[in-house]
Design goal:
The chain is of the alpha+beta class and 169 residues long. It contains seven helices and four strands, in the order αβαβββααααα.
């Protein structure tokens, strides 16, 4: 029951992310996204929005997919780097990874007690990302450029906050 509530809560949170603190991107980015969809063979209509609530690019949805980009992505990366990041997210759409993730979540909920289920699920997630990386690098035609895009994206996130000991103990 708790995992079912967790699953439902995650879905509600994802739906909220699509609607709160988002702004549309410019027409030039929508045109680039359309060209990328064509290059990757994505037939679904994908919306692209800037979000103040996400730290990394996120794809939400299956029937009406939405890519949420952190506000700093378009201003902090070159156009080719942003295109590479978008290609990765579109690869998830092309591969129907949303459906795979839903199936994984259902299996995790039903077989929560078995440690192998959690290990296999984590491995599937890792492999899913590797497959999308391969598709994105192929779509961009430059593997090194794709790696630089990922590195630039990580640099935009900045260091994670760390706890520090106060002077007085």
């Amino acid at each position: 029951t708790m995992l079912s509530l967790r699953l439902m809560g995650g879905w509600i949170q994802a739906e909220r992310l699509k609607r709160r603190h988002v702004t549309p991107v410019g027409e030039q980015w929508m045109a680039r996204l359309a060209r990328l969809c064509e290059r990757l063979g994505v037939t679904e209509t994908v919306r692209l929005l800037n979000s103040a609530l996400v730290e990394t690019p996120v794809l939400i949805g299956w029937l009406k997919p939405v890519i949420l980009l952190p506000m700093s992505t378009i201003t902090g990366l070159s156009e080719d780097q942003v295109e590479a990041i978008l290609a990765h997210e579109l690869a998830h759409v092309r591969r129907c990874d949303y459906l795979v993730r839903v199936c994984q979540s259902l299996v995790e909920t039903l077989l929560f007690y078995h440690p192998a289920v959690w290990w296999v699920s984590r491995q599937i997630g890792i492999e899913r990302e590797y497959c999308c990386d391969d598709l994105a690098a192929a779509a961009c035609g430059d593997k090194i450029g794709y790696v630089h895009a990922l590195t630039g994206l990580e640099e935009l996130r900045g260091p994670k906050p760390r706890l520090a000991m106060a002077v007085h103990g």
